[in-house]
């Protein structure tokens, strides 16, 4: 079994997977999935696309191409090889929701012409393509709608709320809140999300999704800022700025489908819960990891056994680990890691 990662390093770094490069069944390929790919694969994880507004608004046309052309290319690859394919969609398909929490049956409240639309609508179009390939070609698909996620190897200039707050606190700078800080988010630790994605891929063929993956425990952005200050011992103060256009006021997954269907493990372990506020366990500064651990936080995954090609155009490469008991058929998995770590400027 060979595990491969594709990345064009628009936001990612080779350093994130440097410890995997010497493994005999792991390979890294520099590639952008807006261009066709010709490989032989058994499973494809398509997580390609920058998820931070700072990055996806830098080149909005390319962002849309990554979601749409990338999906077309990966679906074509899956069709040719007979591979099962998983699409990493996003909670952003719900836009600024008028239903709370958000179930998979909710069609969303999205601005199709706003500054965030390249990401939101690109992901919505990708979902459409996946289900059209299912209906027209009977392609085995899985669609995950990923909610706010955090964890190691986040870029210090990622532009989303967890990394922003940690970096500002460590530098003793004012912590910037957009709006009044009352916006709500629900953060899932990345190991839990990875385990859920692998579990989703292994579900029976008839379970296609879309399925929400995330932590249902909701709290305000102001609470997160106060928690970061407390954990770092920083003297930072809170400052308030105008809320960006179309920034969601609330974000909380309804994970009833994940709970009632195949067990996908989307909830945080009890050791990471702290009165409903997750501890920002760790993040990566430019050359080292700094830890904000409060005791031993349980890691869901064990040894990194890899699952295949990770297609990461405009996405951050990070380790796709799974528990030591798992075995994978995949000779390749298309994955864009780091995509969908959060949901916008207040993620």
Q: SSE layout and pairings?
A:
Layout (H helix, E strand, L loop, with lengths): L2 E5 L18 E5 L12 E4 L6 H4 L3 H22 L2 E7 L26 H21 L3 E6 L2 E2 L10 H10 L4 E4 L5 E2 L2 E2 H12 L9 E3 L5 E2 H12 L5 E4 L14 H5 L21 E3 L4 E3 L18 E3 L35
Parallel strand pairs: 1-2, 1-15, 3-4, 3-15, 4-5, 5-10, 6-9, 7-12
Antiparallel strand pairs: 8-11, 13-14
Helix pairs in contact: 2-3, 4-6
Account of the protein in words:
The chain has 347 residues and is α/β, with parallel strands linked by helices. The chain contains 7 helices and 15 strands. It has helices at residues 53-56, 60-81, 117-137, 161-170, 190-201, 221-232, 256-260; strands at 3-7, 26-30, 43-46, 84-90, 141-146, 149-150, 175-178, 184-185, 188-189, 211-213, 219-220, 238-241, 282-284, 289-291, 310-312. The strands form 5 sheets. The chain has a 7-stranded parallel β-sheet, with helices on both faces. It has a two-stranded parallel ribbon with strand order 6-9. The chain starts with a strand and ends in a 35-residue tail after the last strand. Residues 273-347 have low confidence and may be disordered.
Summary tags:
alpha/beta, 16% strand, 347 residues, two-stranded parallel ribbon
Radius of gyration: 19 Å
- Please summarize the sheet with the most strands: 7 strands, parallel
Beta-strand percent range: 15-25%
Mean pLDDT: 78
By DSSP, the count of extended strands is 15
Uncertain segments: 273-347
Task: Quote the distance from N terminus to C terminus.
Answer: 36 Å
Q: Strands of the biggest beta sheet: in what spatial order?
A: 2-1-15-3-4-5-10
Task: Give the overall shape.
Answer: globular
* Helicity level: 10-25%
* SSE class: alpha/beta
Number of helices: 7
């Amino acid at each position: 079994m060979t595990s491969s990662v594709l990345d064009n390093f628009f936001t990612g770094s080779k350093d994130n997977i440097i410890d995997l490069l010497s493994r005999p069944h792991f390979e890294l390929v520099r590639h952008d999935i807006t261009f066709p790919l010709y490989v032989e694969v058994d499973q494809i994880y398509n997580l390609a696309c920058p998820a931070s507004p700072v990055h996806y608004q830098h080149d909005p046309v390319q962002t849309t191409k990554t979601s749409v052309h990338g999906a077309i290319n990966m679906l074509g690859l899956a069709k040719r090889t007979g591979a099962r394919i998983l699409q990493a969609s996003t909670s952003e398909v719900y836009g600024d929701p008028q239903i709370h929490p958000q179930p998979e049956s909710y069609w969303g409240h999205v601005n199709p012409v706003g500054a965030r639309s390249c990401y939101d609508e690109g992901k919505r179009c990708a979902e459409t393509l996946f289900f059209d390939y299912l209906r027209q070609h009977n392609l085995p698909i899985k669609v995950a709608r990923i909610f706010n996620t955090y964890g190691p190897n986040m870029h210090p200039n990622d532009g989303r709320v967890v990394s922003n707050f940690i970096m500002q606190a460590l530098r003793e700078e004012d912590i910037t809140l957009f709006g009044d800080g009352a916006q709500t988010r629900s953060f899932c630790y990345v190991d839990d999300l990875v385990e859920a994605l692998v579990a989703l891929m292994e579900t029976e063929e008839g379970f296609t999704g879309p399925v929400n993956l995330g932590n249902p425990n909701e709290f305000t952005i102001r609470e997160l800022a106060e928690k970061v200050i407390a954990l770092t011992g920083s003297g930072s103060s809170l400052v308030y700025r105008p809320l960006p256009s179309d920034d969601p006021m609330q974000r909380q997954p309804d994970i009833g489908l994940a709970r009632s269907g195949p067990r996908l493990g989307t909830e945080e372990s009890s050791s990471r819960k702290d009165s409903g506020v997750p501890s920002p366990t760790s993040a990566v500064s430019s050359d080292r990891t700094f830890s904000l651990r409060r005791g031993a936080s349980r890691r869901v995954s064990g040894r990194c056994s890899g699952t295949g090609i990770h297609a990461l155009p405009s996405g951050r490469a990070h380790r796709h680990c799974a528990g030591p008991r798992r075995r994978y058929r995949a000779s390749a998995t298309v994955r864009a890691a780091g995509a969908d770590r959060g949901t916008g400027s207040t993620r």
